[in-house]
Structure formats: C-alpha cells, structure tokens
Amino acid sequence: MKPRLSPRPRLLVFASGTADGGGSGFRRLCRAMMEGDLRADIVGVVSHHLQGGVARTADEFGIPFQIFPPPWDAAGYQAIAAAHDADWCALSGWLKLVVAHTDSNASVCSSCGTSPISERAAR
Question: What pTM did the predictor assign?
Fold first, then answer.
C-alpha cells in the first residue's frame, strides 16, 4: 500500500458513460475536486467501456482508469476498491447490478453463509 499524500478521503468512482462519449457526472466530480468543492481525492475511475468518454475524461484529469468487464459481482467490486485503497466509492451513472447471491430462494447462501431473505427484509 502506498503512503497517503493527502489527508483527504480517497474516492473511487464507478462511471458507465458510453462507448463513444458520456461520463458527464464523472467530469463534474473531477472539476469539483480540482476547484476544491469536493473534499476528497479521486484516486481512480472504473468503467466498462475501454475507450469511452469516461476514459477520455480520466486521461484529461490524470486520474487512473480501470476497465471492469462482467461479471459485476461483489468480489470484483471489493478487489477494485482494495486495489485503489479507497475510503469511499461513488456511483456516477453506474447502472450495473451487484450480484451477491446466486440462489435467492436458498435459506442460506452457500458461498458466504448469510440469509438472502433476512438481507431483503433489512433493506
């Protein structure tokens, strides 16, 4: 893990954009960070479009870009957040479902031991 250069929280942004544009919410977050209105450091951005608008904006602002292809499962999200040492994650137009349980009818999840039924009730 790299030493922290700033005392501000580390923010990882998930932004879909499109294959040939988009990413306006991510661009606004970058501007807010540069202008001091966002009291956090954007330490990376994740998209599922390799060369879309999000990637171009990341390049413009010097923010590390990472591609995240399917499947969009909990383990993938956790690994990406850990790799960026993120304190917070923001979803800026990220419309991908996080799949935590493969069998929602099971009384207990075979991979993590939690009850999908009790989790739904807690929402």
Answer: 0.77
